[in-house]
Amino acid sequence: MNKPTIDEILAGLSVTREPDTEEPNRYTAVMVTAKRARQINSYYHSLGEGGILDGFTPPFAATLSRNYLSMSMAEVARGEIGYRLRPARQ
After folding, report:
1. Tell me: the pLDDT tens digits for 19-77?
2. Which residues, other chains included, contact 29 with Cβ-Cβ below 8 Å and sequence gap of 6+?
3. Domain segments of the chain: what residues?
């Protein structure tokens, strides 16, 4: 797995982060891309079932890859996926 690189993914996350939050790290990159891959997976599975597509966002751009994780990493690297962190519990 060479493309996109972790640096490209982190740069994409930096573009979409909220102003008062810290710079994203590798853990954030893993969590965001994995969650997006699960959303893409749910979208494609709901198509086969003929279900209602409410709440499932389709992939933003058509890619040659059929791997959901590769699709999500490419979307994050392009800065198309935003994220919001929950405040830390005290």
Report:
1. 888 899 999 999 999 999 999 888 877 776 555 555 656 666 656 677 889 989 999 99
2. 6, 9, 10, 13, 76
3. 6-77
Cis peptide before 59 (omega within 30 of 0): no
In whole angstroms, what is the distance from residue 59 CA to residue 76 CA? 11
Structural tokens at position 79: 């800065």
End-to-end CA distance of the chain: 38
| Burial of residue 52, with CB atoms counted within 10 A of its CB: 0-12 exposed, 13-18 middle, 19 or more buried | exposed
CA torsion angle for 47, 49, 50, 56 (degrees, to 10)?
-50
Whether omega for the bond prior to residue 4 falls within 30 degrees of 0, making it cis, is yes
Q: What is the pLDDT of residues 15-33, one digit of tens each?
A: 988 888 889 999 999 999 9
DSSP 60: S
| Type of residue found at 79 | G
